Amino acid sequence: MAFIKVQKLARDKDGSITQGTASIVDTVYIADGKYHSKQVVREPLGKILSLSEDKRNGIFLSQRRGLVHYDAEQDTFRMLSSGEKEALGLIGGRAQASLTFGDAYWYLQYLLHSGLMQVLKEAFPDETLREALLVRLLHKSLPSGRCTSCAGFLSSSFAGLLVPMQDKAGLADDTAFFSLLGREEYSTSFFLALHKYLQDRQPESCVLVKTAPLPWQAGAFSGTESQDHGSLCLVLARNSGLPVWFTISPDEGSVLATAGSMPQLQDSPNQLQTASCILEAGSVSKDIVREFCSDKKDFIALMPARKDFQYKDAFKEHVRPYLGKAKFEFSLEGRRYFARQVPFSLYGRNVYITHFVDLEKARLRFKEYSTLYPNEVDDLGGFKKEWLASRFGYFALLSSAPLPEKELLGTYLEQSRRYEYFASLCPDCQPAARRGAILFASVQSLISQGLKTALADHNTTPEEVFAAIQPLFCLPSDTDLCLTDTPSDKARDCFAILGIAVPACVSPEKFRQELSSL
User: Fold this and answer.
1) Which of 341, 335, 327 is CA-nearest to residue 358?
2) Residue 479: closest CA among 452, 516, 458, 505
3) Which pLDDT does position 211 carry in this prediction?
4) Which of 59, 128, 218, 280 gives 20 to 30 Å between its CA and that of 210?
5) Which is it for the CA torsion 250, 251, 257, 259, positive or negative?
6) Could you tell me the end-to-end alpha-carbon distance of the chain, in angstroms, rounded to an integer?
7) In which residue ranges of the chain is pLDDT below 50?
8) Where are the beta strands (DSSP E) in 56-101?
9) What is the pLDDT of residues 435-463, one digit of tens each?
10) Could you give phi then psi for residue 344, rounded to 5 degrees?
11) What pLDDT is attached to residue 257?
12) Residue 229 CA to chain centroid, in angstroms?
């Protein structure tokens, strides 16, 4: 029969256990032994938190099982009840001084195992800045950080023990942090490190996305008096969609100049090349057409409503005769579109104009207009009414290649949404802070994209992983952090993805040294 063997048990004057460890010991028969028996340790139970007077059952902090109750009479383990946790000073299933552990520890281990921590160290050699960056990445990426402030997240998370150099009073000031991060040397060093990382794994070409000018805070640039406009040029990896370079300036700048300003690694066999452009209305120039009309390069641009391209005339010639015919319609992202592609000559090159009508948007807007101005709509002739019924959903895309209409629109919408996300960051901040916010979002996108890709190979998602490891809490001791709950099988599987086991104890100082000593 198994029994609990206790070592170095000590209690304070109130009878509470202050130290001591225990193990499960079996007595086995030995035929040739002096007493025909021998005691064999089956499993260490770890630190003793509670022990019955007869030492037949108790609560232990096991390195293997975490916080667990063991009964030697039944030889069984079980999770703690709420009453038992309350008796140990654990309220609502957590220790009063316990910290969220699983999500932050797993996220940081992922950065180590994926090589992304090395990218961050190369890009941000200043340890204080890198710690501030990691804090905000954890806060904004983990479920346990999204519903609280950054300082609140650190006070309740294992991550707070890893950043002793952080001034927690300044964590709420994102503007100051983004202004520091927005220095040009940091964006250059990050994208150089990212370039090296991508080339070592999966070299790919780039897409330059340049749409409408950005609104800026009044006086953001020297010599300005009213609200100014700058231009964000964003360069994305074609396959993954990761930002690999960006530049912003008070003027609209040149697409070709932006493409040529990308930082390149010296002697790299696979330089990042801008192979595509997604352009705003009116950005297409003779130089763009000559540069991006080839077998290796292409562009897509929104056609503007201007003298050289009249929407009404284009609708009359290329859309009206074909509306309602099923072969010219398709569904994309839950919406129904009309599309028809026609060849076009621009600056002596063969290009293509694809005419689109968002049928749902056109119908709804026409209904609203008819409700507001019923008499005006009733008085319209045939073509004018048809144009009014479609004009609110009509647009056209210019492309250098004859792409299928659905693929063309899908590419344009996908890249434009990515651009709009980055363009929407910190709209009321000074340029330096805005650059920092875009750089931070670029770092966050790199990690989240890598995380999704890695977990997809294991048929799971980040949401499922964090849900499984979120319940893991830790209880600080004199030197280490000890898990307060037994990890579930799902939590163990999530750690196994990284090739590691769920730790029962972690030294914050040693783990911090591991993060910074790459």
Assistant:
1) 335
2) 505
3) 55
4) 218
5) positive
6) 49
7) 91-96, 215-228, 265-269
8) 57-62, 66-71, 76-78, 90-91, 94-95, 99-100
9) 999 999 999 999 999 999 999 999 999 99
10) -155, 150
11) 65
12) 28
Do 398 and 143 meet the contact criterion of CB atoms below 8 Å apart? no
- Contact 277/374 with Cβ under 8 angstroms? no
- How far is 90 from 98, CA to CA, in rounded Å? 9
Q: Directed axis angle between helix 127-141 and helix 431-456, to 10°? A: 60
**Angle, in degrees to the nearest 10, between helices 127-141 and 102-114:** 120
Q: What are the beta bridge partners of residue 71?
A: 57, 76
Q: Coil, strand, or helix at residue 407?
A: helix
Query: Where do runs of H (alpha helix) occur along 202-276?
Result: 255-260
Confidence at residue 93, expressed as pLDDT on a 0 to 100 scale: 43
Positive or negative torsion for Cα 374, 368, 360, 412:
positive
What's the per-residue H, E or C state across 128-180?
Answer: HHHHHHHHHHHHHHCHHHHCCCHHHHHHHEHHHHCCCCCCHHHCCCHHHHHHH
Which residues are CB-neighbours of 51 under 8 A, at least 6 positions away?
A: 4, 6, 9, 17, 20, 22, 57, 58, 59
Per-residue pLDDT at 230: 66
The 8-class DSSP code of residue 53 comes to: T
3-state secondary structure of 66: strand
The contacts of residue 147 (CB under 8 Å, 6+ apart) are none
Can you say whether the dihedral through the CA atoms of 59, 62, 66, 68 is positive or negative?
Answer: negative
pLDDT score at 266: 43
Calpha distance 27→493 (Å, rounded): 34
Residue 283 sits at the vertex; the CA angle it makes with 277 and 285, to the nearest 5 degrees, is 90
For the whole model, what pTM was predicted? 0.74
367-397 pLDDT, tens digit per residue, is 999 999 888 888 888 889 999 999 999 999 9
Token pair of 408 as six digits:
């063309």
- Angstrom CA distances, 124 to 26, 263, 296, 432, 516, stand at 54, 16, 35, 17, 11
CA distance 513 to 37: 47
Measured over the CA atoms of residue 480, residue 484, residue 486 and residue 490, the dihedral's sign is negative
Cα distance between residue 174 and residue 136, in whole Å: 9
Partners of residue 394 on adjacent β-strands: 357
Question: For 331, what's the count of Cα atoms within 13 Å in the CB-facing half-sphere?
Answer: 3
